[in-house]
């Protein structure tokens, strides 16, 4: 198919998209319907619509990557604001765009996000000798049982959402860009054995029916995380005259319901692992800043504790006022805030204990046993230097921050949440940092 054939259809998509973007909110649905009608009515040019949409989507995604966005960020917003079919279209567009980049052009976490989204080419050509680009829309329409108008409608609802997104602080290089100097951008074939051990401990903590066992397993996982961070700090301290790395960052979804307490829980986990958290409530994510191994640990432990907290909250059940009115939301909000506060205390205690023992030469092996080594006087200065580097990186990425308090209005929920944190896992500040 020639460029001459594709160009007019791209322009048709662009005009329809421009009309939707320029429409006042009250006329947005009408603008989508009008644009979809024009696109669907162009039967003679519809065979070129697939390639034309992919051309337009590539441009849009290229712009979003350059403005700091990543595949998981877009999927989170589409999942929140639109329907499953819009998410399916986004994932396929991301998969089509990713084909243009060699694996080496994408960092490790980008590959992980593509894998988690199952962003892959599943469609074939159109059956008439045309390539994947031409076969995409017909295959998508058949898979989701959409006619031309419905398919154009889905696209004209998705693309404006993407087009309106602002630039945000990047957490790694865009595809094909020169990688920044932190190890989070370097693809690795596996993960350290310590992280595998931590992952296994947390999986057991999530599955056990015995609260004391969950507590012991989670605390042991945090101790291993702290030891892993200590080992990394000493390794970096021994690289005098070489690049020991600088802090990186990741985004972790924090979504409704109860996004405030969830952000507090993430902040508690991050603080215990020498990371910082900045909450972007409007985009349903937190940015976590820290060294690469610590970021991996934070993602693992936060995910596990959220599973444990949700299960404990559900076991606590709904609550009602004496007059019969439901107070489930207030109870659960208070439950999770209290849970996060107590988790902060216990994780911090575990990290401080491991650090004291390491300073005295006691080293925790990957299998959980300990060995006595010579104390290393570089340890405490190395850890302090890493914390200072994380603070500096946070200030550069987010020069204007505010703190937001999370309210608690149910005393019974607070007590239940604290008890659950004591059972399930391990100086609450009661707030999280937020972008201004």
Structure description:
It is built from 15 helices and seven strands. Mean pLDDT is 84; it is low at 180-189 and 424-431. Helix content is 60%, strand content 8%. Helix 1 crosses helix 8 (148-163). The protein has helices at residues 3-22, 28-41, 49-66, 71-81, 84-98, 108-117, 132-144, 148-163, 193-207, 211-237, 259-272, 292-316, 328-359, 379-397, 411-424; strands spanning 248-253, 276-280, 285-290, 362-364, 370-372, 401-405, 431-435. The protein is mainly alpha-helical. A three-stranded antiparallel β-sheet has the order 1-3-2. The radius of gyration is 25 Å and the shape is elongated.
Which short descriptors sum up this protein?
single chain, three-stranded antiparallel sheet, 15 helices
In angstroms, what separates the terminal alpha carbons? 48 Å
Mean pLDDT: 84
What percent strand?
Answer: 5-15%
Largest sheet: 3 strands, antiparallel
| Number of E-type strands | 7
- Any idea what the radius of gyration is? 25 Å
Please report the number of helical segments.
15
The low-confidence runs, each spanning 5 or more residues with pLDDT under 50, are 180-189, 424-431
Q: Which structural category do the helix and sheet elements fall into?
A: mainly alpha
N to C succession of SSEs? HHHHHHHHHHEHEEHHEEHEHE
Described by the principal axes of the CA atoms, the overall outline is elongated
Helix proportion = 55-70%
């Amino acid at each position: 198919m020639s460029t001459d054939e594709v160009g007019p259809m791209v322009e048709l998509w662009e005009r329809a998209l421009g009309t939707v973007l320029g429409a006042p909110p009250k006329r947005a649905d009408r603008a989508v319907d009008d644009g979809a009608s024009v696109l669907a009515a162009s039967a003679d040019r519809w065979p070129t619509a697939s390639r034309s949409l992919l051309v337009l989507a590539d441009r849009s995604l290229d712009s979003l990557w350059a403005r700091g966005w990543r595949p998981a960020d877009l999927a989170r917003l589409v999942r929140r604001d639109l329907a499953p079919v819009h998410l399916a279209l986004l994932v396929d567009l991301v998969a089509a765009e990713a084909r243009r980049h060699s694996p080496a052009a994408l960092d490790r976490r980008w590959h992980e996000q593509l894998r988690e989204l199952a962003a892959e080419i599943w469609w074939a050509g159109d059956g008439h000798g045309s390539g994947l680009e031409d076969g995409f829309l017909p295959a998508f329409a058949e898979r989701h049982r959409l006619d031309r108008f419905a398919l154009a409608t889905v696209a004209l609802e998705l693309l404006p959402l993407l087009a309106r997104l602002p630039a945000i602080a990047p957490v790694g290089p865009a595809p094909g860009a020169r990688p920044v100097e932190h190890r989070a951008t370097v693809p690795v074939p596996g993960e350290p054995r310590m992280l595998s051990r931590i992952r296994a401990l947390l999986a057991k903590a999530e599955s056990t029916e015995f609260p004391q066992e969950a507590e012991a397993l989670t605390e042991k996982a945090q101790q291993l995380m702290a030891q892993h961070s200590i080992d990394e700090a000493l390794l970096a301290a021994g690289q005098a005259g070489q690049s020991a790395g600088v802090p990186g960052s990741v985004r972790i979804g924090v979504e409704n319901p109860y996004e405030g307490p969830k952000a507090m829980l993430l902040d508690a986990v991050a603080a215990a692992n020498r990371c910082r958290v900045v909450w972007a409530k409007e985009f349903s994510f937190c940015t976590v800043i820290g060294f690469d191994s610590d970021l991996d640990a934070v993602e693992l432990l936060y995910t596990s504790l959220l599973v444990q907290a949700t299960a404990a909250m559900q076991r606590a059940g709904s609550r009602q006022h004496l007059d019969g009115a439901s107070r489930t939301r207030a109870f659960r909000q208070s439950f999770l805030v209290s849970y996060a506060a107590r988790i902060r205390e216990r994780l911090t205690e575990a990290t401080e204990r491991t650090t004291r023992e390491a300073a005295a030469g006691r080293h925790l092996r990957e299998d959980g046993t300990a060995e006595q080594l010579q104390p290393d006087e570089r340890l405490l200065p190395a850890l302090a230097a890493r914390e200072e580097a994380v603070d500096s990186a946070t200030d550069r990425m987010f020069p204007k921050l505010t703190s937001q308090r999370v309210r608690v209005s149910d005393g019974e929920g607070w007590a239940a949440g604290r008890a659950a944190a004591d059972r399930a896992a391990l100086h609450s500040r009661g707030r999280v940092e937020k972008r201004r």
